[in-house]
Amino acid sequence: MMKDCLIIGAGPAGLSAAISAAQNGVDVTVIDEFMKPGGRLLGQLHEEPDHVWWNGIEEAQKLFDEVLNQSIDLKLGTSVYHIEKANDNWLVHTNEGIYRGKTLLVAAGAAERSIPIPGWTLPGVMSIGAAQVMTNVHQVKPGHNGIVIGINVLSLAIARELQLAGVHLQGIVLPPEHLLTKGVSHPMDVFQSLLHLTHLAPSPLLKWGGLLAGKSAFIQRLSLQMYPKNGFKLWNISVQMKRVVTEIVGHEQVQGVKTADLTASGDIVPGSERTIPVDFVCIAGGLYPLVELVGVAGCPFKYIPSLGGHVPIHDERMKTPVDGLFVAGNITGIESAKVAKAQGHLAGLSISEALGKLTENAEIKRAIEHIEKTREKALIQFHPDIKKGRKHMETIAADFQKKEVSGQ
Amino acid sequence: MREDMIICRCEEVTYKDIYQTVEHHQCSSRETKLRTRAGMGYCGGRTCRTFVDQIVAEVYGEPSGDAIPLKYRPPVRPIPFKTMGGK
Fold first, then answer.
1. Are the C-beta atoms of B3 and B16 separated by less than 8 Å?
2. What does pLDDT average to over chain B?
3. CATH architecture type of domain A2-111+287-406
4. E strand intervals along A60-189
5. Which of A40-49, A163-172, A223-232 has the highest mean pLDDT?
6. A22-34 pLDDT per residue, tens
7. Preferred mutation among A106, A127, A179, A247 to probe B, highest tally of B CBs within 10 A
8. Who contacts A140 (Cβ-Cβ below 8 Å, separation ≥6)?
9. Residue A186 pairs with which residues in a beta bridge?
10. Please, which residues 179-208 of chain A have a Cβ atom closer than 8 Å to chain B?
């Protein structure tokens, strides 16, 4: 059966798009691999600066309730393995058969970057996102006594969630320095990357770090030298910017990690090596846009590090240069779920417009403004240059359109 | 650093295998994939593709461009042979 619109991904972007499109009379099917709607919302739980808790499961339920109010088809547990275009329509191949649509929105979200560490293939080592899903979605503790390797926004947020679930953590530490950990393993690099997050931290130490953000390299170096080797406590979890895990050890499963202290310049302090017993290890290397399906669809990309890497070229209305192909959410750049929702809402309107079901331009304009406002108010910025990255993409998309028009 | 550290988990390709291949053949991510099988396993390179790209960028000097070095091809998820027309 031919649908007006197929949406891949039932997360905050995909569900919001389905709702706004359906409100304009678009006939929508949403497809998702997971058995529950909500995407990564399902794992989220954090306290906002105004002390209101953001409970992702409740947010997902709100979106799902709206979906139920509209006549939206939702296909869960359905995995897309290929998309192609035939006679101006999209064919979406899944393990449950082929779906057909006039327009296609890919809201596939992000995938996790890992960090190779000797011993990382042992059972009991998982990505930090996997630990989040086990804990908050399936409500199973990933272990009783763990350690997190990789210090970044994502690992701080999820470590806090693990702690709320009663999982004990030895701390959050650095990965070993090698070719594949450039920028995430040196104490100074990590220290600097955290300076833009200091508003999050209740800890006076990190706030004090925030005051150093604009200061000279000399002052920053000095403050890192004074940084305690056991780290500071963030929600009672020790963030150890001067401790490294050099190897994960165990017989058939994780039993411990080999750690060492680091000097401010990143050298191992002789004699500080020791083995800490743990029963699970989380590796946190950050997120990157999950672009496999738009890649298969032939969409051109732009490499923009502040957005998380390779992102599909798209204009400010979430439209790609491929006719009838739209994108929204983390596939366009790593940001919060609130931004993804706002982008999804806009994508639903753009799709309605493309199908001739919406002529009101003002509504689209408001939706674009709403994304910018949401970004402005976002608690967590995954990358300090996110706005520059977004602007860059707008310019690229405009140039691309000009070229298309002039037939180059 | 431990050179026997695994980079491609699906095909069990080590850091040393990949590094030496790129060094010896001065090759792209795609050629490295074909020579070592890194990125050709069950997960479709979802975990190791960025590592292969990083090693290539460092050793061969191919910087990150706008094109994705290891092209995505269907199927992007494992599917049974019968879906492809087998019995």
1. yes
2. 91
3. 3-Layer(bba) Sandwich (3.50)
4. 73-75, 80-86, 89-94, 97-106, 110-112, 125-127, 145-149, 168-174
5. A163-172
6. 999 999 999 999 9
7. A179
8. A134
9. none
10. 179-180, 182
Length reported for chain A: 408
ipTM of the complex: 0.93
A95 touches chain B (CB under 8 A): yes
Q: Quick check: helix, strand or coil at residue A273?
A: coil
Convert the pLDDT of each residue in A298-327 to its tens digit.
999 999 999 999 999 999 999 999 999 999
What does the pLDDT read at residue A273?
96
Residue A215 pLDDT level (bands cut at 50, 70, 90): low
Residue A138, both tokens: 């399936």
Can you read off the two tokens belonging to residue A145?
């006594």
Selecting from 3.30.565.10, 3.60.15.10, 3.40.1380.10, 3.50.50.60, what CATH number does the domain A114-283 have? 3.50.50.60
Where exactly does CATH 3.50.50.60 map onto chain A? 2-111+287-406, 114-283
Distance between B79 CA and the closest CA of chain A, angstroms: 7
Tell me the chain A residues in contact with residue B75 when contact means C-beta distances shorter than 8 Å: 81-82, 93
Interchain contact A116–B (C-beta under 8 A): yes
Contact call for B66 and A302, based on CB within 8 A: yes
- The mean pLDDT value for B65-85 works out to 87
Of A81, A113, A182, the CB nearest to B76: A81
- Round to whole Å and give the CA distance between A315 and A294: 15
Per-residue pLDDT at A300: 96
Ramachandran bin of A318, using left for φ above 0, alpha for ψ from -120 to 50, beta for the remaining angles: left
Which residues from A are below 8 Å from B4, CB to CB?
118
